[in-house]
Q: What sequence folds into this?
């Protein structure tokens, strides 16, 4: 046993102040990843700072983008009429995360702060060219991800909200691990007036990445037939107990074709 202090922060400034005074503090969202990590003794923070009373769970439409508060649960994103209308692919993504319990407790901020290499939201943020807003600054998706389970967030930085630009068309298709529903491969395709963006999760050795070859092919022809068999190289892809790099490469091509078909 080890002792840990639990504090419910009143607002984001309070959370930052508590973090500054802790020796090894951790922000707590829904606890879907953090609590199992504590149980397995992979982390033993002296202070858990609960963000649930910080008022970070609104969903707004600012015209060009949807803004989602960090503490918004997956089920709230999935069921939001606003998200369903503006970026239905994001509502659909949220509605297929894990199981009912995970969707009720897990949050968009926790998911993006954790940056699990098989998580779904990182693909949406990167493909949509979104921005992570903290109490101090705004970080573009390109500057946010920093390898598996790593981001450019500082220790004391709190995600306040995430903004996701509205595309002309978008779809997310994943090949889920049958046990966890995490992505063995997940592909988010977003078509904007100035081009197509494709982000892949579940497959890269360094976590989520943009597939520039696929983007080029889809810029030229936004149809499933633009992605030839064998179009995706296995270089830089993960091999693990779930799938080889070659199988993941095949899945990326197939999930991309399905996502483009869903867009059209
Ligand atoms: C069985 C299972 C299946 C899952 N399946 C999927 C899936 O299919 N797809 C998918 O994408 N995800 C999946 N997940 C992950 C899930 O969606 C959660 O979002 C993820 O586990 C993070 O949980 P949380 O939001 O409760 O954050 P927590 O576990 O509370 O926190 C996670 C980390 O983020 C930090 N953090 C949390 N909020 C903030 C913030 N606002 N600012 C800064 N740091 C913060 C915490 O300090 C901690 O380090 C699954 C999880 C489980 C347990």
A:
């Amino acid at each position: 046993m080890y002792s840990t202090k639990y504090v419910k922060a009143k607002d984001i400034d309070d959370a930052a102040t508590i973090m500054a005074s802790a020796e090894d503090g951790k922000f707590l969202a829904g606890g879907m990843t953090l609590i199992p990590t504590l149980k397995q003794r992979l982390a033993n923070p002296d202070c858990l700072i609960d963000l649930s009373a910080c008022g970070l769970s609104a969903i707004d439409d600012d015209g060009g983008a949807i803004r989602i508060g960090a503490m918004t649960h997956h089920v709230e994103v999935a069921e939001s009429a606003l998200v369903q209308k503006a970026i239905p692919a994001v509502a659909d993504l949220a509605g297929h995360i894990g199981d009912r319990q995970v969707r009720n407790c897990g949050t968009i901020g926790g998911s993006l702060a954790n940056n699990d290499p098989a998580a779904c939201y990182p693909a949406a943020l990167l493909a949509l060219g979104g921005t992570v807003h903290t109490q101090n600054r705004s970080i573009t998706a390109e500057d946010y991800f920093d390898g598996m389970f790593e981001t450019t967030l500082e220790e004391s930085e709190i995600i306040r909200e995430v903004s996701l630009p509205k595309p002309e068309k978008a779809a997310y298709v994943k090949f889920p691990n049958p046990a966890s529903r995490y992505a063995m491969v997940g592909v988010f395709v977003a078509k904007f007036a100035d081009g197509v963006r494709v982000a892949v999760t579940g497959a890269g050795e360094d976590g989520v990445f943009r597939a520039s070859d696929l983007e080029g092919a889809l810029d030229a022809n936004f149809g499933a037939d633009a992605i030839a068999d064998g179009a995706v190289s296995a270089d830089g892809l993960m091999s693990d107990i779930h799938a080889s790099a070659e199988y993941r490469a095949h899945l990326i091509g197939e999930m991309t074709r399905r996502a483009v078909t869903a867009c059209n």
Remarks:
- Residues 26-34, 51, 70, 74, 97-98, 102, 105-107, 109-111, 113-114, 119-121, 158-159, 180-182 surround flavin-adenine dinucleotide (CB under 6 Å).
- Residues 5-50 form a domain with the Uridine Diphospho-n-acetylenolpyruvylglucosamine Reductase; domain 2 fold (CATH 3.30.43.10).
- The chain has a mean pLDDT of 96.
- The chain has three domains: 5-50, 59-165, 169-263.
